[in-house]
Amino acid sequence: MKTFKSITLATLLLAGTSLFAANPVNDQVDPDKVAQEIAQLLEDPSFDYEDGTVAEVTLKVCEEGKLQVVSVSTKNKKAKEYIQTRLDSQKLENNLVVGKTYTLPVTFQSLS
Fold first, then answer.
1. Residue 10 has what pLDDT?
2. How far apart are CA 112 and CA 103, in angstroms?
3. Which is deepest, 48, 70, 84, 94, by most CB within 10 Å?
4. pTM score, two decimals?
């Protein structure tokens, strides 16, 4: 079995940029750093997937600053479960706006 790495950072960087384009955020939030944090949370998926598997993830920031996964739209059930498990109730170092909802695309790609 091939070793799969994390979500492609370039995709998340692009996603991070589009994530913040439509949503107001704290002046101190760096979209690239948030995208990198999310990429780290989604590192080393433990399931098989086809390159290019895409999911649209909707997140909300709770009062405690933790992420709440509102929805994951994808055809791959294992990818959906993986994203929900890895992101739900996680707190990012970069504080997003509490109560705001963010939507970002996530693409799984092999880096090997």
1. 36
2. 28
3. 94
4. 0.72
Q: Which residues face 71 on adjacent strands?
A: 58
Computed over every residue of the chain, the mean pLDDT equals: 79
Classify residue 9 by its DSSP letter: H
Residue 21 has a CB neighbour count (10 Å cut-off) of: 8
Which residue(s) pair with 103 in the sheet?
58
Beta bridge pairs of residue 101: 60
Residue 94 tokens, joined? 């970069």
Candidates 48, 36, 99; CA nearest to 78 is 48
Contacts of 81 (CB under 8 A, 6+ apart): none
Residue 49: closest CA among 10, 79, 84, 75: 79
Q: How many beta carbons lie within 10 A of that of residue 28, not counting itself?
A: 7
Band the pLDDT of 1: cuts 50, 70, 90.
Answer: very low
